[in-house]
Amino acid sequence: MGRLFFILVLLAVSLYGVKLLRAKLDEPSRKSRKLDRDTSTTASNNQKIVKCLHCGLHIPEKEAIKKGDKNFCSIEHASRHLS
Ligand SMILES: [Zn+2]
Question: One digit per residue, pLDDT tens: the chain, 83 residues?
Fold first, then answer.
């Protein structure tokens, strides 16, 4: 009888262990999935990033100086490139 009880306890403990292990294994994947969702939402929320034609600096399109279809990080670079 004592042996049967021991086996039952062992079984319960191992099942509990597996459950914990699965929860632990699930956690990082769930986290990364959430991160993926976060980055995609921030990417869609953020402005488009454009490159300064003069120095190659990446700047939000909103802050870029536009000269036709060319983008610049500053008026100085825009005029320098065009002159
Ligand atoms: Zn620049």
Answer: 688 888 888 898 888 888 888 888 887 665 566 656 555 555 556 579 999 999 999 999 999 999 999 999 999 999 998 76
Structure tokens at 36: 């993926």
> How far, in Å, is the centroid of ligand 1 from the Cα of 69?
15
Cα-to-centroid distance, 39 and ligand 1 (Å): 27
CA 1/CA 58 separation, integer angstroms: 74
What is the reported pTM? 0.44
The neighbour count for residue 74, using CB atoms within 10 Å, is: 16
∠ CA 32-33-35, nearest 5°, is: 60
